[in-house]
Automatic annotation (TrEMBL):
It comes from the Bacteria. InterPro entries: FAD-bd_oxidored_4_C, FAD-bd_PCMH, FAD-bd_PCMH-like_sf, FAD-bd_PCMH_sub2, FAD-linked_Oxase-like_C, FAD-linked_OxidoTrans_Type4, Oxid_FAD_bind_N, Vanillyl_alc_oxidase_C-sub2. This is Glycolate oxidase. It comes from Stappia indica. Pfam families: FAD-oxidase_C, FAD_binding_4. The lineage of its organism: Bacteria, Pseudomonadati, Pseudomonadota, Alphaproteobacteria, Hyphomicrobiales.
């Protein structure tokens, strides 16, 4: 491993490995437990593959009862658990622990209910993101959040990371499209949050769970909102001489009150990598490429496309092409959605970052990122959700060259610090995981982080669910509950205490 450290394995737990494996095999019989080195090798990393760690044992439950039994056993016996979906996490959120149980939820792979009347689908967490759309498209519906990994990523993983996608600008992230959850707490208790109804009584624990990165519970069922397919959807492919010009065009489109279904941007390096990969006619000579999709009634789409074209021309667009068929629209998006694998063909390794900035800061941040690229001596291809300011810089490096991974990590950390500096945040949709864990103090004060850990303690007081992720320093729950005494004085000394 490089600069990111994980919790030191508990030797007392490792000494009981045989006993733990036997107990798990009783709870999840058949092929539900994997404990051989060769069998566990495929679980040693996730999409953040710069880091690897073999789990102590892997368990693949098939029923809620099995999930409950495993978690209850681990809680009673002090064994750590790392929940895992499809393993596409780009922040190391599903990285195993050497003294922990890796719980894969991929046998929970069924769509349980399609309720077109209520525009809802109930699915198990192992169903892929794209699988939900494919289950309802014959009815004229679709599921809006569409991360680039949608063909592989699981809906449970989307809940963990609050995933977005190219259409989040208009239709929201996962949190805006989830209606209900069934989840199992570390104690084995099964609870339900929300449902098909529009709103829930009491505290909004559903929003708390979305984006909680496996630290609070294990999701076993998801209810999501589906949308009716729009009457018309057309996309414009616009080339600009520079990323700054493209960024200014983005700001003016939003400023004009136009909310595209999707608005994505790529820089020159990413344009050419993607075009080599998919051959869809991207303008190779452009310094930046903007994909703007409008959807809705045909007359509205035609009107808005004319407005977008006028704004683009005012900002120096060097090329502009509007899709004339559904096939062409999908082709425009194919390059953007293939940007990550396209870069993987060019560079032995890359880090995909995930910071979010105010749209107005886009030109400034892109200029600073070019300076950082020169400073660290590494190439960086930029693809991002331009409409909501979610950047995905792809830092190219070769892990076989000594020091390049460390330089790539330093480059990425500088980008994330820059995002916070201009008023943005450390992550938009990939989560914190281990990748951004040690940068959390850049954005949050010690009191902020302690308050977040108190939430963790309410759900998992023994700190057994996915430890080592998100929080740079994990406090014992008892420490967080202590009364703070400053200079011998309790806070608010005039308040009666019982």
């Amino acid at each position: 491993m490089s600069g990111i450290a994980m919790p030191r394995p508990d030797e007392a737990v490792l000494s009981r490995r045989g006993e733990i494996v036997r107990a798990l095999k009783e709870m999840v019989p058949g092929e539900g437990v994997i404990d051989t080195d060769i069998g566990m090798r495929v679980y040693e990393t996730d999409g953040f593959n710069a880091y690897r760690q073999m789990p102590m044992v892997v368990v693949l439950p098939e029923t809620v009862e099995q999930v409950s039994a495993v978690l209850r056993y681990c809680h009673e016996n002090g064994v750590k658990v790392v929940p895992r979906g499809a393993g596409t996490s780009l922040s190391g959120g599903a990285l195993p622990l050497g003294d922990g149980v890796l719980m894969s939820m991929m046998k929970f792979n069924k769509v349980l209910d399609i309720d077109a009347a209520n525009r809802a689908v109930v699915a198990q967490p192992g169903v892929t993101n794209l699988g939900i759309t494919r289950a309802v498209e014959h009815l004229g519906f679709y599921y809006a959040p569409d991360p680039s990994s949608q063909i592989a990523c699981s809906i449970g993983g989307n809940i963990a990371e609050n995933s977005g996608g190219v259409h989040s600008l208009k239709y929201g992230l996962t949190t805006n499209n989830v209606l209900g959850l069934e989840m199992v707490l570390i104690t084995g208790e099964v609870i339900r949050l929300g449902g098909k109804h529009l709103d829930s009584e009491g505290y909004d624990l559903l929003a708390l769970m979305t984006g909680s990165e496996g630290l609070l519970g294990v999701v076993t069922e998801v209810t999501v909102r589906i949308l009716q397919k729009p009457e018309t959807a057309r996309a414009a492919l616009v080339g600009f001489p520079s990323s700054e010009a493209g960024g200014q065009c983005v700001a003016e489109i939003i400023g004009a009150g136009i909310i595209p279904g999707g608005m994505e941007m790529m820089d020159e390096l990413a344009i050419n990598f993607a075009e080599d990969f998919v051959n869809v006619g991207y303008p190779r000579e452009a310094g930046a490429l903007l994909i703007v999709e409008l959807d809705g009634p045909e007359a509205e789409v035609d009107h808005l496309l004319a407005e977008v074209e006028a704004i683009a021309r005012r900002n120096g667009a060097t090329s502009l092409r509007v899709s004339t068929s559904e096939e062409e629209r999908l082709a425009f998006w194919a390059g953007r959605k293939s940007a990550f694998p396209a870069v993987g063909r060019i560079s032995p390794d890359y880090l995909c970052m995930d910071g979010t900035i105010p749209r107005r800061a886009l030109p400034q941040v892109l200029a600073r990122m070019r300076e950082l690229s020169e400073k660290h001596g590494l190439r960086c291809a930029n693809v991002f959700h331009a409409g909501d300011g979610n950047l995905h810089p792809l830092i190219l490096y070769d892990a076989n060259k000594p020091g390049e991974l460390e330089r790539a990590e330093d480059f990425g950390a500088d980008i994330l610090r820059l995002c916070v500096e201009v008023g943005g945040v450390l992550t938009g949709e990939h989560g914190v995981g281990i990748e951004k864990r040690d940068l959390m103090p850049v954005m949050f004060s010690e009191d902020d982080l302690k308050q977040q850990q108190r939430v963790k303690c309410a759900f998992d007081p023994k700190q057994l669910l996915n430890p080592g992720k998100v929080f740079p320093e994990l406090h014992r729950c008892a420490e967080l509950g202590r009364m703070h005494v400053s200079k011998g004085q309790l806070p608010f000394p005039d308040i009666p205490r019982f």
